[in-house]
Write a structure and sequence with these properties.
two-stranded antiparallel sheet, 5-stranded mixed beta sheet
């Protein structure tokens, strides 16, 4: 019998996993760099911006035209968010965090890998270590709040230089390439 490789199946929507908040420590340097205008995959508890779309608003159904988009998508359903980022060519910018342990899956192999970091519309950076997330039902980070994988930041569109006053921490390398 031959070995058959299998990937971990995607789970359905799970509030405990999909509604975790990005910490301010991880979000703030990116926001200072990219000046986001809308959080497209948020909840009342975890949003990072005054303008945001909840699950009921369906950020996938909204136009992202002329927006500078922040997206911490539900990790149980990543493909539609990546497809939306590619489809929204009129968005000024889309910045999405993705799990770094899923690069073997179809959505990564079809939508990210062939096009990333080639001087076009998409740049990616694998961050060192693991980000922490605030649990969906809490306001503080508890022990074991790190997911068992690293994070990739994917950026579609223009990449403005950071404001002169912004000091980029060494632990958070930022994108510096120009885009078409």
């Amino acid at each position: 019998m031959a070995f058959v490789a299998r990937t971990h199946p995607q789970q359905g929507y799970n509030e405990q996993v999909d509604d975790r908040a990005t910490t301010w420590e991880d979000f703030t340097p990116l926001h200072e760099r990219y000046r986001f205008t809308v959080d497209v995959a948020a909840s009342e508890r975890n949003t990072k911006l005054p303008r945001f779309y909840t699950r009921a608003d369906d950020g996938l159904a909204q136009s992202w035209a002329s927006e500078r988009v922040w997206c911490n998508p539900p990790f149980s359903s990543i493909r539609p968010w990546v497809e939306k980022a590619w489809a929204e060519t009129v968005a000024d910018l889309v910045v999405m965090i993705l799990p770094a342990n899923r690069t073997e899956q179809g959505w990564w192999q079809e939508l990210i890998e062939p096009r990333r970091d080639q001087g076009g519309r998409l740049a990616t950076r694998f961050y060192p270590g693991r980000w922490q997330f605030v649990p969906f039902d809490d306001d503080v980070i508890r022990p074991n709040s790190r997911p068992p994988f690293g994070i990739v930041v994917a950026v579609w569109g223009a990449d403005p230089p950071p404001p002169q006053s912004l000091t980029i921490p060494q632990a958070l390398p930022m994108l510096s390439a120009d885009y078409d």
